[in-house]
Amino acid sequence: MKRLLFAALIGTAALVSFSSCTKEYITQEAINPGRSFIYTVKPNEWSSDNNKRIIHKINLPELTKYYIDQGNVSVHMSLNKEASYKILPASFAFNDGRETNPVSFHIDYKVGEVSIIGEDPTNEFTINPPTQDIIVKIIISETDFVE
């Protein structure tokens, strides 16, 4: 009988000591490392630099020195009302009756500004501005810098 009482005493002591532990839950906040901006570029918003190129500049105050030095900047274009996108650099053939050769687009960016540049990579013909609206998506995102 003493053994049963002793076993019950040990079991109760163990139960009390283990149940007094508290679990800590660490909740990480969700981090959204990127930001997306969508613009509609109308046909009359393109300019030419007289070097057979068309250019559209987008003011983007959120594009800070951090993104130039360390982050990521990507630009995408859609000709079909956002049904699909091509990431730049990319070539597009506009079916507007004026342009038969594809236009090669690339980007240049600096603090506060993204420039979309369209040109003929062979430099054989003059580029006309598109006659349709183009949807542009710019994504800026944080990255981990590795030295």
Automatic annotation (TrEMBL):
Write the signal peptide boundaries: 1-22
Q: Mind listing the UniProt keywords for this protein, alphabetically? A: Signal
In its UniProt entry, what is this protein called? DUF4840 domain-containing protein
Gene source species:
Sphingobacterium ginsenosidimutans
